[in-house]
Amino acid sequence: MMTASTPAAPTRARNKFVTDSWNRLARAYDFPILQRLAYRPPQDEILEQLHLTDARRIADIGCGTGILASRIYEEIGPDVLYGCDASEGMLAQAKARTPEVNWINRQAEDLGLPDGAVDAVVSTHAFHFFEHAPAVAEFHRILAPGGLLAIVVANQHNLLGQFFQLTTSPSVMYFPTIEEMRDLVEEAGFTLLTQRPIRRPLPGAFIPDVLTVARKH
Ligand SMILES: C[S@@+](CC[C@H](N)C(=O)[O-])C[C@H]1O[C@@H](n2cnc3c(N)ncnc32)[C@H](O)[C@@H]1O
């Protein structure tokens, strides 16, 4: 059964170290090669998923410098769009990128949005910092019935994930396995739709990240 939350210290998501680190990294984060190699492929697949839905209210959680949320605005044009991040430094970069997104400085586990506020919640490469079960419960709460959840996070079934997990304390971040992600979303009341590695030109052992897509009952 679910073990994803087991190694997580209860304070991980509120860990000042995480937020302070991202405040410091914010200016370097948009470096084009880093973005193209690491972050763009999962963002492309999240956009693909959103194009398959008629979601008009969308939230990007752990939005960082706002690249994905800005692309959602430009490529989908939703009626309501939130970009949420715990780091003021990352959000400052996001705010400079576009005023068309509602940028909110909140923790993923306590988003401060009303119940059923959005039709889709997306998140790329931030979930490993969250308190897993409380965050998924919060996503479930803010989603309308039938709403879509799409999360990309690195996992432990590959060399990169193992390296990060071995070199970083689970109290700072924890990479869930594919099975743990499945259990997390199902136990929160979602129906799992798909789980697969993000398409990258890499051998399987190096595939660092997995897309999990689920729907609220
Ligand atoms: C690797 S960046 C990913 C940013 C963006 N999603 C992307 O794909 O480019 C991780 C982000 O998660 C944010 N973060 C970490 N813990 C958080 C939490 N509990 N709630 C909201 N944001 C958090 C960090 O501040 C950081 O901006």
From TrEMBL:
This is Class I SAM-dependent methyltransferase. InterPro entries: Methyltransf_11 (IPR013216), Methyltransf_Superfamily (IPR050508), SAM-dependent_MTases_sf (IPR029063). It comes from Nocardia callitridis. GO terms for biological process: methylation. GO terms for molecular function: methyltransferase activity. It comes from the Bacteria. Keywords: Methyltransferase, Transferase. Residues 60-151 form the Methyltransferase type domain.
